[in-house]
Amino acid sequence: MDYYGSQITKLIEELSSLPGIGAKSAQRLAFHVINMPEESVEKLANSLVEARRNVHYCKECFTLTDGDVCPICASSARNHRTIMVVETTRDLAAYEKTGKYEGVYHVLHGAISPMLGIGPGDIKLKELIKRLQGDVDEVIVATNNSLEGETTAMYISKLIKPTGIKVSRIASGVPVGGDLEYIDEVTLLRALEGRVEL
Ligand code: ZN
What is the mean pLDDT of the chain? Predict the structure, then answer.
């Protein structure tokens, strides 16, 4: 039965379609929104639409940005000869939070998974290889410590080895199957400093 009237029900439905929002949270958010000043709701709605409309991949590293290239790729303070390969933009954010990594990134947007039918052509690997034609000293593979992450790391190392560019893998201080974004900064830094050549 629709006790709220269709508009509220629709809002709750829309909210509960978001990841991590269950029925109860959706209901709480919906009532929160309804009690917000109309101006604030408009601001929120606009920022959702604007972000969706204007955010795209950086043409260098494929992270999400609203510019042509992201601020990291555009920065002359970064070492553009060291590229850290990560699975997602959230992993990039986790490393950026440590504030200690000075190189640039490459975001794959996934990992190779034969089980899920995700092959090398389905992630941004070609784009990585293309970048290696420039001046690159080292590629640090920081894919997750899961089966897919390891498979991807091995694949990348095989591709890069013949080019003579150094390839390293972050140390396994990171728990198996652990998503990089949930790991604390100290562990991330230790994994980065303890990286081993592949
Ligand atoms: Zn970039």
Answer: 89
Taking the centre of ligand 1 as the mean of its atom positions, its distance from the CA of residue 184, in whole angstroms, is: 24
The domains of the chain, with CATH numbers, are 6-54 (1.10.8.420), 64-197 (3.40.1360.10)
141 CA distance to ligand 1 middle (Å):
17
User: Rounded to the nearest whole angstrom, what is the distance from the C-alpha of residue 121 to the centroid of ligand 1?
Assistant: 20
SS3 assignment, position 117: coil
**Rounded to an integer, what distance in angstroms lies between the CA atom of residue 115 and that of residue 27?**
36
pLDDT digits (tens, 9 = 90+) for 58-71: 999 999 999 999 99
Ligand 1 centre from 111 Cα, in Å?
A: 19
Cβ neighbours of 198 (radius 10 Å): 17
